[in-house]
Write a structure and sequence with these properties.
Structural class: alpha/beta
Number of helices: 11
Strand order of the largest sheet: 7-8-9-10-11-12-13-14
Distance between the termini: 38 Å
Strand content: 15-25%
Number of strands: 14
Bound molecules: phosphoenolpyruvate, manganese (II) ion
Helix content: 25-40%
Oligomer: single chain
Length: about 350
């Protein structure tokens, strides 16, 4: 059961509702949003729901009480019909504008990151991506430069007036990475790392939750629910391809997940066509498709010299191709009523 407080509700009125739910013996989880507070009551037996809902609905400072039968509640479209817009230090994710996040797979050197970032910014990207902690499948592969890479990202992003998105793998690093990053990326391999998700609920830094490579949409939304339930309302979802029998592409980019998520949830949806295809020749086409099906943002890998890249060389775009991609994207965005 979800209680949506009226926009004008005072702190005392919010406390009052929380107290009533506690007195009835149920769990209380509140998200204190900018516009309004939403309170979840957990553990209410089905048979008693109607009675409690009616008594709450009679209060003037409650806008609506909703019974949500889905296994995720705060992530569901019902609690937030208009769609969430996340403010990343002045850059909006969600809404009419499409957010462009681009940069190298991994921060290798200052120069390599600078070249990539400069090209991305010149082509229109506003958020710089780059791995500092890399979740490599092989322990022999490059693992990232850690805090040195975080410093490079921040320095370059500040110079170019960009924001930073980078992956955090370990809950012990959330605070450290948050000092340098504006969005914390949770990689596909960690989508079901529930201890990490719970900790991410305790901060307010925006989270980009990538889809687990074998995760169903419902499991993904429940993973987002962990973060929301903890009190962090700034969650975006990133489709990055799933495992299927196909091997020509690195993953199968499930673009049907985008409109499906839009039906089910209010959270902004990002598409990563780089991990999603694993092939640079396919990135432009899939990016256009992502925008056409309603993506709110894009996460794209760009490297000044992909042949020498320490990770994901085959899928990284050269700067010129990224600029061409942006030009090709504009009419598609326009056609679906969005801006870049
Ligand atoms: C990445 O963005 O470079 C990355 C490792 O992503 P994923 O977790 O989707 O594989
Ligand atoms: Mn990568």
């Amino acid at each position: 059961m979800i209680v949506v407080m009226a926009a004008h509700a005072t702190d005392a009125e919010i406390k009052d509702v929380e107290q009533r739910i506690t007195d009835w013996g149920y769990g209380v989880h509140a998200i204190y949003g900018e516009a309004r507070t939403v309170i979840g009551a957990t553990g209410v037996p089905e048979a008693d729901k109607e009675r409690y809902m009616e008594s709450l609905e009679a209060l003037p400072y409650i806008e609506q009480v909703i019974a949500i039968l889905r296994p995720y509640k705060f992530a569901s479209r019902e609690v937030h019909p208009e769609g969430t817009v996340i403010d990343v230090k002045g850059i909006k994710i969600g809404g009419n504008h499409i957010a462009l996040m681009a940069g190298p797979c991994t921060v290798e050197t200052y120069e390599q990151t600078w070249e990539s970032a400069k090209a991305c910014k010149d082509a229109g990207a506003t958020i710089l991506r780059g791995g500092a902690y890399k979740p490599s499948t092989s322990p022999y592969s490059f693992q990232g430069h850690g805090v040195e890479a975080l410093k490079i990202l921040k320095e370059i992003a500040d110079k170019l007036d960009m924001r930073v998105i980078t992956e955090v793998m370990d809950l012990r690093n959330i605070e450290l990475v948050s000092q340098y990053a504006d969005i914390l990326q949770i990689g596909t391999r960690n989508m079901q790392n529930y201890d990490l998700l719970r900790e991410l609920g305790k901060v307010k830094t925006p989270i980009c939750l990538k889809r687990g490579m074998s995760a169903k949409i419902e499991e993904w939304l429940q993973a987002a629910e962990y973060i929301l339930l903890g009190g962090n309302p700034n969650v975006m979802l990133c489709e990055r391809g799933i495992r299927t029998f196909e091997t020509y592409t690195r993953n199968t980019l499930d673009l049907s997940a985008v409109p499906a998520l839009k039906e089910l949830s209010h959270l902004p949806v990002i598409v990563d066509p780089s991990q999603g295809t694993g092939r640079r020749s396919l990135v432009i086409a899939m990016t256009k498709a992502a925008v056409a099906v309603g993506a709110d943002g894009l996460l794209i890998e760009v490297h000044p010299d992909p042949r020498t890249a320490l990770s994901d060389g085959p899928q990284q775009l050269k700067p010129a191709r990224f600029a061409a991609l942006m030009a090709a994207l504009r009419p598609v965005a326009e056609a679906v009523g969005r801006t870049l």
